[in-house]
Amino acid sequence: MGTLQNIFNNSLDEWVIMENKIKALFADVLQISSDQINDRSTPYTIEAWDSLNHLNLIASFEEEFSIDIDPEEIPLMMVSYLQFKTYILNKLG
């Protein structure tokens, strides 16, 4: 049985690992460096993040993480990287 601190650290480590996986896949699909991505990134700050690549992102994340993304949520996920990442993290539970 772990201490509360160990449980917290393990959860935090898992969270960071998942955030890094999301960022890496996002960068890979858009063919950009992950250094170009932060929570404030938007389609206005990332030239490669156009509507076609947004659909490529959706398909890639659905396949990679075995999730279904609600079609009504797809436009909302294009607001910012933070919005996109948060949606994926929530889907992963």
Automatic annotation (TrEMBL):
<protein>
    <submittedName>
        <fullName>Acyl carrier protein</fullName>
    </submittedName>
</protein>
<dbReference type="InterPro" id="IPR036736">
    <property type="entry name" value="ACP-like_sf"/>
</dbReference>
<feature type="domain" description="Carrier">
    <location>
        <begin position="21"/>
        <end position="74"/>
    </location>
</feature>
<dbReference type="InterPro" id="IPR009081">
    <property type="entry name" value="PP-bd_ACP"/>
</dbReference>
<dbReference type="Pfam" id="PF00550">
    <property type="entry name" value="PP-binding"/>
</dbReference>
